Amino acid sequence: MVETIEQLIYYYSQNGGYVLEQFFRHFLMSAYGVLFAALFAIPLGIIIARYRKLSGWVFSLANVIQTIPALAMLAVLMLVMGLGANTVVVSLFLYSILPILRNTYTGIINVDKTLIESGNGMGMTRNQLLRMVELPLALSVILAGIRTAMVIAIGITTIGTFIGAGGLGDIIVRGTNAASGAAIILAGAIPTALMAITADILLGALEKLLSPSRKKAGGEMEQAA
């Protein structure tokens, strides 16, 4: 174990720049996949919350996509798009749809109906209700879906190395073919785990910050003061 740690420290000292480069490449692929999924899934979640008869069909399709093994997904997309990071980003986009879509739908339909009725009584349009009432109250739930998608994406991006996308998976795979394999595998696995944990903590903190209950508690404290 001590020898492995020494080899790990030596690897970082000799290849720190390369590890950092692959770290950012890994993060950007994950972030882009989740970002594009959010841009697609949040509006779609709002639509199926409005027209709930569509929700069964949409969720069924999203569930089917989620059940496809990651390697199989990459293999199919590779036939269409070729090798490289773009194929991984599209794969992450597809895998990130379900958690964001589900949480957007859940967040919108669970908004307190009395608040909707109050907005209607004030003469708000549907778009105004969405922008000023529903989305602010559902934001923390939507963010929880993005948080889940991001953690999943960071893990899936690791296997992007098999189609030439780079990322920290490159280091892990190199470790499987090296004499000091355990140290090199750890050199890729540790930053991957730290990235996932950091993303989960930061997005979790933002989720709590945007929680309606927290905002309500903050408003009550201000009134009491």
UniProtKB/TrEMBL annotation:
Key words, A-Z: Membrane, Transmembrane, Transmembrane helix, Transport
Localization per Swiss-Prot or TrEMBL: Cell membrane; Membrane
Domain ABC transmembrane type-1: 23-203
Highest taxon of the lineage: Bacteria
Membrane topology term: Multi-pass membrane protein
Transmembrane segments: 31-51, 71-95, 135-163, 183-206
Primary subcellular site in the record, as a coarse category: membrane
InterPro entries, sorted: ABC_transp_perm/SBD (IPR051204), MetI-like (IPR000515), MetI-like_sf (IPR035906)
Entries under Gene3D superfamilies matching the protein: MetI-like
Similarity comment: family membership: Belongs to the binding-protein-dependent transport system permease family.
Protein name, as recorded: ABC transporter permease
Origin species: Pontibacillus salicampi
